[in-house]
Amino acid sequence: MQIYRPQLTSVLSITHRASGVWLALGAFALVGWLIAVVQGGHTYATLESLMGSWIGHVLLFSWTLALFYHLCNGIRHLAWDLDYGFELRNIYLSGWCVVMTSVLLTGATWAIALSMGA
C-alpha cells in the first residue's frame, strides 16, 4: 500500500459513492426541514438559525457540491452505458470535466443565492 498512487478514475469512483451517501443524509435533513416548516414557530426558528450559522452554510455548500458532482458524474456514467467515452484519454478528460463543471455550478449557484440575499 505504500507505493500505491491514487488515480483520477479511482478517486472519482469513490467520491461518487461518498456523494451519494452524503446526498441521502441531506434528504433526511430536507425532511427535517419540511417537518419544521409544518410545525412552524419555535421549531422552524431554531432550524433556521442553525442553517444560517457558519456550520449550516458549510453543510448546505457541501450538499450543493455533492448534488452537482453526483449529477455530472452520473451523466458521465450514462454516456459510458451508451458506450461513449471509453478511450483512456476521454476517461480522464471527462473526469476533469466533471470536477470543473461541479465546482463551477456550485459557485454559480451560491453566487446567485448570495446576491439574492439568501
Structure description:
Helix 2 crosses helix 3 (54-81). The longest helix has 32 residues, at 8-39. This protein has one domain: Up-down Bundle (3 helical TM bundles of succinate and fumarate reductases), CATH 1.20.1300.10. It is elongated and about 55 Å long. The protein contains 4 helices and no strands. By secondary structure, it is mainly alpha-helical.
Question: Would you spell out the secondary-structure blueprint of this structure?
Answer:
Blueprint: H1 8-39, H2 41-52, H3 54-81, H4 88-115
Reading off the top of the CATH hierarchy, the class is best stated as Mainly Alpha
Coarse shape: elongated
User: Any idea how many domains?
Assistant: 1
List how many beta strands DSSP finds. 0
Cα gyration radius (Å): 18 Å
- What is the CA–CA distance across the termini? 46 Å
Detail the poorly predicted runs. Answer: none
Could you spell the SSE succession in H and E letters? Answer: HHHH
Instruction: Specify the structural class.
Output: mainly alpha
Helical content class: over 70%
Q: How much β-strand is present in the residues? A: under 5%
Predict the CATH topology: 3 helical TM bundles of succinate and fumarate reductases
Mean pLDDT across the residues is: 94
